[in-house]
Write a structure and sequence with these properties.
Blueprint: H1 2-22, E1 29-36, E2 39-45, E3 52-61, E4 67-73, E5 78-81, E6 91-102, E7 107-110, E8 114-119, H2 129-135
Antiparallel strand pairs: 1-2, 2-5, 3-4, 3-6, 6-7, 6-8
């Protein structure tokens, strides 16, 4: 009978360890999206970073599929999206989402999707590849 108690105790310990690893962290909350000249800064908060490995930042525009555009390490609660100048449109709406990746490398939780409108600071971003090549002829 004593052997059964040892197995039961070991099973309870393993269950506690396993459920502790599976406890979802708090959901991140996007607190601010600031538009600057040439980039957008996304800031967020989270209740607890227990079990967090890193954060992934996802962006979509219009009807595009959301893509992971970057990541930040644990303890960093902002991301600068500097690749928005690749879009040719002078006025574009971007949606962002922050996803928490746990120490097990799986998605743990994610923020609500929030968006902002970005207006290109100059007409330089509207140039096509053909017009850029023509400048060097």
């Amino acid at each position: 009978m004593k052997l059964g108690h040892k197995y039961l105790f070991a099973a309870v310990i393993l269950l506690l360890i396993f459920t502790g690893m599976m406890v979802a962290q708090g959901n991140p909350t996007i607190t601010d999206i600031k538009v600057f000249d040439g980039y957008i800064r996304i800031s967020w908060t989270i209740d607890s970073e227990a079990g967090v490995d890193h954060y992934e930042i996802w962006r979509s525009s219009g009807s595009s599929v959301p893509l992971c555009i970057g990541r930040t390490e644990r303890g960093v609660f902002y991301f600068d999206d500097k690749n928005i100048s690749l879009y040719k449109a002078a006025d574009q709406y971007f949606n962002y989402q922050v996803r928490v990746i746990g120490s097990n490398q799986f998605l743990q939780s994610n923020s609500e999707i929030k968006g902002t409108r970005y207006t290109s600071p100059s007409s330089a971003y509207k140039r096509t590849w053909g017009s850029i090549k023509a400048m060097f002829r």
